[in-house]
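ugh ok fine here u go
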Amino acid sequence: MNEALRCPQCKTDLSDTANGWVLGCIERWLAGQLISPDQADRLRGDLRSSASSQATIATRRPGLALTPSMALLLIGGLLVISAVVMVATELWDDLIPAGRFAVVAVPAALMYLSAAFLRLRRMTSDWVPAAFALVGAGMAPFAVWLALGMTKDFVPEKDMAMWVAIASGVGLAVQLATLAWLRAPALTVPPSATLIWLAGSLAEWLWPHNPSGEPVSVALVLSGVLLMVAGQAFGRYGHARHAIAPNAVGVAIAMCGLTVLAAEQKGLYDALALAAPIALIVAACKPQYRPYLWAGAAFLVVNTFRFGLSRFATTLGLPIAVMMCGLVSMIIGYVVHRVRKEYAA
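structure:
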Protein backbone atom coordinates (compact mmCIF):
# COMPACT_ATOMS: atom_id res chain seq x y z
CA MET A 1 0.00 0.00 0.00
CA ASN A 2 2.65 2.53 -1.08
CA GLU A 3 0.12 4.62 -2.99
CA ALA A 4 -3.16 6.06 -1.76
CA LEU A 5 -6.27 4.18 -2.82
CA ARG A 6 -8.47 6.40 -4.99
CA CYS A 7 -11.89 5.96 -6.55
CA PRO A 8 -11.47 5.50 -10.32
CA GLN A 9 -14.43 7.80 -11.04
CA CYS A 10 -14.21 10.72 -8.57
CA LYS A 11 -10.53 10.23 -7.51
CA THR A 12 -11.53 10.41 -3.83
CA ASP A 13 -8.89 9.15 -1.40
CA LEU A 14 -10.19 5.88 0.07
CA SER A 15 -7.13 5.07 2.19
CA ASP A 16 -8.85 5.81 5.51
CA THR A 17 -11.82 3.64 4.53
CA ALA A 18 -9.55 0.76 3.50
CA ASN A 19 -7.52 1.02 6.70
CA GLY A 20 -10.72 1.04 8.76
CA TRP A 21 -11.94 -2.09 6.99
CA VAL A 22 -8.64 -3.87 7.63
CA LEU A 23 -8.73 -2.85 11.31
CA GLY A 24 -12.25 -4.23 11.56
CA CYS A 25 -11.07 -7.54 10.08
CA ILE A 26 -8.23 -7.70 12.60
CA GLU A 27 -10.68 -7.17 15.48
CA ARG A 28 -13.01 -9.87 14.15
CA TRP A 29 -10.11 -12.33 13.73
CA LEU A 30 -8.97 -11.57 17.26
CA ALA A 31 -12.49 -12.03 18.67
CA GLY A 32 -12.81 -15.32 16.82
CA GLN A 33 -9.43 -16.47 18.18
CA LEU A 34 -8.09 -16.86 14.65
CA ILE A 35 -5.02 -14.83 15.60
CA SER A 36 -3.26 -14.15 18.89
CA PRO A 37 -3.13 -10.71 20.58
CA ASP A 38 0.56 -10.40 19.65
CA GLN A 39 -0.23 -11.09 16.01
CA ALA A 40 -3.04 -8.53 16.11
CA ASP A 41 -0.67 -5.90 17.54
CA ARG A 42 1.89 -6.61 14.82
CA LEU A 43 -0.77 -6.31 12.12
CA ARG A 44 -1.96 -3.00 13.55
CA GLY A 45 1.64 -1.79 13.67
CA ASP A 46 2.16 -2.73 10.02
CA LEU A 47 -1.03 -0.89 9.09
CA ARG A 48 0.06 2.25 10.98
CA SER A 49 3.46 2.13 9.28
CA SER A 50 1.76 1.84 5.90
CA ALA A 51 -0.53 4.77 6.69
CA SER A 52 2.47 6.84 7.82
CA SER A 53 4.31 6.14 4.57
CA GLN A 54 1.21 7.11 2.60
CA ALA A 55 1.02 10.40 4.50
CA THR A 56 4.70 11.08 3.73
CA ILE A 57 4.14 10.42 0.05
CA ALA A 58 1.03 12.60 0.04
CA THR A 59 2.91 15.57 1.49
CA ARG A 60 5.37 15.39 -1.39
CA ARG A 61 2.74 15.60 -4.10
CA PRO A 62 2.63 19.00 -5.81
CA GLY A 63 -1.16 19.03 -5.84
CA LEU A 64 -1.31 19.06 -2.04
CA ALA A 65 1.15 21.92 -1.56
CA LEU A 66 0.03 25.42 -0.64
CA THR A 67 0.40 27.43 -3.84
CA PRO A 68 0.49 31.25 -4.01
CA SER A 69 -2.95 31.30 -5.61
CA MET A 70 -4.42 29.21 -2.79
CA ALA A 71 -2.79 31.45 -0.17
CA LEU A 72 -4.21 34.57 -1.85
CA LEU A 73 -7.60 32.87 -2.07
CA LEU A 74 -7.67 32.11 1.64
CA ILE A 75 -6.36 35.54 2.63
CA GLY A 76 -8.99 37.20 0.43
CA GLY A 77 -11.73 35.12 2.00
CA LEU A 78 -10.59 36.08 5.49
CA LEU A 79 -10.47 39.77 4.54
CA VAL A 80 -13.99 39.62 3.10
CA ILE A 81 -15.32 37.99 6.27
CA SER A 82 -13.48 40.56 8.40
CA ALA A 83 -15.04 43.39 6.39
CA VAL A 84 -18.51 41.87 6.85
CA VAL A 85 -17.92 41.61 10.60
CA MET A 86 -16.78 45.23 10.82
CA VAL A 87 -19.78 46.47 8.84
CA ALA A 88 -22.14 44.37 10.93
CA THR A 89 -20.58 45.73 14.13
CA GLU A 90 -21.13 49.31 13.01
CA LEU A 91 -24.69 48.86 11.72
CA TRP A 92 -25.97 45.98 13.89
CA ASP A 93 -28.20 48.01 16.19
CA ASP A 94 -29.80 49.83 13.26
CA LEU A 95 -30.56 46.70 11.21
CA ILE A 96 -33.94 45.01 11.14
CA PRO A 97 -34.06 41.24 11.90
CA ALA A 98 -34.05 40.38 8.19
CA GLY A 99 -31.00 42.57 7.65
CA ARG A 100 -29.12 40.93 10.50
CA PHE A 101 -29.94 37.52 9.08
CA ALA A 102 -28.70 38.56 5.64
CA VAL A 103 -25.40 39.88 7.03
CA VAL A 104 -24.57 36.41 8.40
CA ALA A 105 -26.47 34.08 6.06
CA VAL A 106 -25.17 35.53 2.79
CA PRO A 107 -21.45 35.04 3.61
CA ALA A 108 -22.21 31.56 4.97
CA ALA A 109 -24.06 30.65 1.78
CA LEU A 110 -21.19 32.03 -0.33
CA MET A 111 -18.74 29.86 1.62
CA TYR A 112 -20.83 26.76 0.93
CA LEU A 113 -21.30 27.64 -2.74
CA SER A 114 -17.55 28.17 -3.15
CA ALA A 115 -16.85 24.84 -1.47
CA ALA A 116 -19.37 23.04 -3.68
CA PHE A 117 -17.99 24.68 -6.86
CA LEU A 118 -14.39 23.80 -6.05
CA ARG A 119 -15.34 20.31 -4.96
CA LEU A 120 -17.36 19.50 -8.07
CA ARG A 121 -14.85 20.98 -10.50
CA ARG A 122 -11.88 19.36 -8.72
CA MET A 123 -9.96 22.60 -9.17
CA THR A 124 -7.85 22.45 -6.00
CA SER A 125 -6.81 20.11 -3.23
CA ASP A 126 -9.55 18.77 -0.99
CA TRP A 127 -8.55 20.95 1.96
CA VAL A 128 -9.46 24.19 0.12
CA PRO A 129 -13.23 23.51 -0.23
CA ALA A 130 -13.11 22.06 3.27
CA ALA A 131 -11.71 25.37 4.54
CA PHE A 132 -14.57 27.29 2.91
CA ALA A 133 -17.11 24.85 4.32
CA LEU A 134 -15.49 25.14 7.76
CA VAL A 135 -16.21 28.87 7.84
CA GLY A 136 -19.78 28.32 6.65
CA ALA A 137 -20.38 25.54 9.18
CA GLY A 138 -19.10 27.74 12.00
CA MET A 139 -21.61 30.45 11.04
CA ALA A 140 -24.55 28.06 10.64
CA PRO A 141 -25.91 28.08 14.24
CA PHE A 142 -25.75 31.88 14.41
CA ALA A 143 -27.54 32.13 11.06
CA VAL A 144 -30.29 29.84 12.37
CA TRP A 145 -30.57 32.00 15.50
CA LEU A 146 -31.03 35.12 13.38
CA ALA A 147 -33.55 33.31 11.18
CA LEU A 148 -35.58 32.55 14.30
CA GLY A 149 -35.38 36.25 15.11
CA MET A 150 -37.43 36.97 12.00
CA THR A 151 -40.45 35.07 13.39
CA LYS A 152 -43.20 36.79 15.35
CA ASP A 153 -43.07 34.37 18.29
CA PHE A 154 -39.38 34.96 18.94
CA VAL A 155 -38.94 36.46 22.42
CA PRO A 156 -35.26 35.96 23.37
CA GLU A 157 -35.60 37.63 26.77
CA LYS A 158 -38.30 35.15 27.83
CA ASP A 159 -37.22 31.83 26.36
CA MET A 160 -33.53 32.37 25.64
CA ALA A 161 -32.45 28.81 26.47
CA MET A 162 -35.17 27.28 24.27
CA TRP A 163 -34.20 29.35 21.23
CA VAL A 164 -30.49 28.68 21.78
CA ALA A 165 -31.24 24.95 21.96
CA ILE A 166 -33.24 25.08 18.71
CA ALA A 167 -30.57 27.09 16.91
CA SER A 168 -27.82 24.78 18.21
CA GLY A 169 -29.74 21.66 17.20
CA VAL A 170 -30.40 22.84 13.64
CA GLY A 171 -26.85 24.17 13.33
CA LEU A 172 -25.48 20.85 14.57
CA ALA A 173 -27.47 19.01 11.89
CA VAL A 174 -26.04 21.31 9.21
CA GLN A 175 -22.51 20.80 10.51
CA LEU A 176 -22.85 17.02 10.61
CA ALA A 177 -24.19 17.05 7.05
CA THR A 178 -21.17 19.15 6.02
CA LEU A 179 -18.83 16.64 7.68
CA ALA A 180 -20.55 13.74 5.92
CA TRP A 181 -20.28 15.59 2.61
CA LEU A 182 -16.61 16.60 2.61
CA ARG A 183 -15.26 14.26 5.31
CA ALA A 184 -12.38 16.58 6.23
CA PRO A 185 -10.90 16.20 9.73
CA ALA A 186 -11.17 19.96 10.40
CA LEU A 187 -14.94 19.77 9.95
CA THR A 188 -15.23 17.81 13.21
CA VAL A 189 -14.43 21.01 15.15
CA PRO A 190 -17.73 22.93 14.63
CA PRO A 191 -20.06 20.07 15.62
CA SER A 192 -17.90 19.32 18.67
CA ALA A 193 -18.34 22.88 19.92
CA THR A 194 -22.02 23.11 18.94
CA LEU A 195 -22.88 19.89 20.77
CA ILE A 196 -21.67 21.47 24.00
CA TRP A 197 -23.86 24.55 23.43
CA LEU A 198 -26.80 22.26 22.68
CA ALA A 199 -26.30 20.22 25.87
CA GLY A 200 -25.99 23.30 28.08
CA SER A 201 -28.98 25.10 26.56
CA LEU A 202 -31.15 22.00 26.76
CA ALA A 203 -30.37 21.62 30.46
CA GLU A 204 -31.09 25.31 31.06
CA TRP A 205 -34.36 25.04 29.12
CA LEU A 206 -35.64 21.84 30.76
CA TRP A 207 -34.58 22.78 34.32
CA PRO A 208 -34.84 26.59 34.37
CA HIS A 209 -35.45 27.05 38.08
CA ASN A 210 -32.47 25.15 39.44
CA PRO A 211 -30.20 27.77 41.09
CA SER A 212 -27.36 25.34 41.72
CA GLY A 213 -26.51 24.96 38.04
CA GLU A 214 -26.12 21.22 38.52
CA PRO A 215 -28.17 20.22 35.43
CA VAL A 216 -25.97 22.34 33.16
CA SER A 217 -22.76 20.87 34.60
CA VAL A 218 -24.12 17.33 34.30
CA ALA A 219 -25.14 18.06 30.69
CA LEU A 220 -21.61 19.27 29.92
CA VAL A 221 -20.13 16.10 31.40
CA LEU A 222 -22.48 13.92 29.32
CA SER A 223 -21.78 15.88 26.13
CA GLY A 224 -18.04 15.52 26.77
CA VAL A 225 -18.38 11.77 27.26
CA LEU A 226 -20.43 11.55 24.05
CA LEU A 227 -17.68 13.37 22.14
CA MET A 228 -15.08 11.00 23.59
CA VAL A 229 -17.17 8.04 22.40
CA ALA A 230 -17.34 9.60 18.94
CA GLY A 231 -13.57 10.10 18.96
CA GLN A 232 -13.01 6.47 19.87
CA ALA A 233 -15.38 5.40 17.10
CA PHE A 234 -13.42 7.46 14.56
CA GLY A 235 -10.16 5.95 15.76
CA ARG A 236 -11.53 2.41 15.73
CA TYR A 237 -12.47 2.71 12.07
CA GLY A 238 -9.13 4.16 11.02
CA HIS A 239 -9.96 7.90 10.95
CA ALA A 240 -7.30 9.01 13.42
CA ARG A 241 -7.30 12.67 12.33
CA HIS A 242 -11.08 12.90 12.65
CA ALA A 243 -10.79 11.70 16.24
CA ILE A 244 -8.54 14.57 17.40
CA ALA A 245 -11.18 17.27 17.91
CA PRO A 246 -13.87 15.07 19.55
CA ASN A 247 -11.33 13.52 21.90
CA ALA A 248 -9.65 16.80 22.87
CA VAL A 249 -12.84 18.84 23.26
CA GLY A 250 -14.73 15.97 24.88
CA VAL A 251 -12.23 15.14 27.61
CA ALA A 252 -11.68 18.83 28.43
CA ILE A 253 -15.41 19.60 28.73
CA ALA A 254 -16.19 16.43 30.68
CA MET A 255 -13.44 17.13 33.20
CA CYS A 256 -14.39 20.83 33.47
CA GLY A 257 -18.01 19.94 34.17
CA LEU A 258 -17.02 17.36 36.76
CA THR A 259 -14.66 19.81 38.46
CA VAL A 260 -17.41 22.45 38.66
CA LEU A 261 -19.80 19.88 40.14
CA ALA A 262 -17.23 18.86 42.74
CA ALA A 263 -16.54 22.48 43.69
CA GLU A 264 -20.23 23.33 44.08
CA GLN A 265 -21.85 20.10 45.28
CA LYS A 266 -19.03 18.35 47.21
CA GLY A 267 -19.68 14.81 48.49
CA LEU A 268 -19.77 12.14 45.82
CA TYR A 269 -18.66 14.56 43.12
CA ASP A 270 -15.38 15.13 44.99
CA ALA A 271 -14.61 11.42 44.76
CA LEU A 272 -15.58 11.33 41.08
CA ALA A 273 -13.48 14.40 40.30
CA LEU A 274 -10.44 12.59 41.70
CA ALA A 275 -11.23 9.11 40.36
CA ALA A 276 -12.02 10.16 36.78
CA PRO A 277 -8.60 11.72 36.01
CA ILE A 278 -6.83 8.72 37.55
CA ALA A 279 -8.92 6.42 35.37
CA LEU A 280 -8.01 8.48 32.30
CA ILE A 281 -4.31 8.32 33.10
CA VAL A 282 -4.41 4.56 33.63
CA ALA A 283 -6.48 4.09 30.45
CA ALA A 284 -3.87 6.12 28.54
CA CYS A 285 -1.54 3.14 28.91
CA LYS A 286 -3.37 1.81 25.86
CA PRO A 287 -2.64 3.63 22.58
CA GLN A 288 -6.28 4.34 21.71
CA TYR A 289 -6.75 6.28 24.96
CA ARG A 290 -3.46 8.19 24.77
CA PRO A 291 -5.18 11.53 23.89
CA TYR A 292 -6.66 11.61 27.40
CA LEU A 293 -3.30 11.48 29.22
CA TRP A 294 -2.51 15.17 29.57
CA ALA A 295 -6.08 16.20 30.33
CA GLY A 296 -6.26 13.54 33.04
CA ALA A 297 -2.94 14.66 34.53
CA ALA A 298 -3.89 18.35 34.49
CA PHE A 299 -7.29 17.84 36.11
CA LEU A 300 -5.84 15.40 38.65
CA VAL A 301 -3.50 18.13 39.85
CA VAL A 302 -6.30 20.71 39.87
CA ASN A 303 -8.73 18.52 41.80
CA THR A 304 -6.11 17.20 44.20
CA PHE A 305 -5.09 20.71 45.22
CA ARG A 306 -8.70 21.93 45.28
CA PHE A 307 -9.79 19.06 47.51
CA GLY A 308 -6.74 19.25 49.79
CA LEU A 309 -6.84 22.99 50.27
CA SER A 310 -10.61 23.11 50.82
CA ARG A 311 -10.58 20.31 53.41
CA PHE A 312 -7.28 20.63 55.26
CA ALA A 313 -5.93 24.17 54.76
CA THR A 314 -7.73 25.51 57.83
CA THR A 315 -7.08 22.50 60.09
CA LEU A 316 -3.53 21.45 59.18
CA GLY A 317 -2.30 24.73 57.77
CA LEU A 318 -1.55 25.72 54.19
CA PRO A 319 2.04 24.35 53.97
CA ILE A 320 1.03 20.93 55.30
CA ALA A 321 -1.98 20.77 52.99
CA VAL A 322 0.19 21.64 49.98
CA MET A 323 2.77 19.02 51.03
CA MET A 324 0.05 16.36 51.33
CA CYS A 325 -1.26 17.22 47.86
CA GLY A 326 2.24 16.93 46.45
CA LEU A 327 2.84 13.55 48.10
CA VAL A 328 -0.51 12.23 46.84
CA SER A 329 0.37 13.36 43.31
CA MET A 330 3.76 11.63 43.51
CA ILE A 331 2.20 8.40 44.80
CA ILE A 332 -0.40 8.40 42.03
CA GLY A 333 2.33 9.10 39.47
CA TYR A 334 4.34 6.12 40.70
CA VAL A 335 1.30 3.82 40.61
CA VAL A 336 0.50 4.91 37.06
CA HIS A 337 4.13 4.32 36.10
CA ARG A 338 3.93 0.77 37.43
CA VAL A 339 0.66 0.14 35.63
CA ARG A 340 2.10 1.36 32.34
CA LYS A 341 5.21 -0.76 32.86
CA GLU A 342 3.12 -3.86 33.51
CA TYR A 343 1.01 -3.15 30.42
CA ALA A 344 4.12 -2.71 28.28
CA ALA A 345 5.52 -6.00 29.58
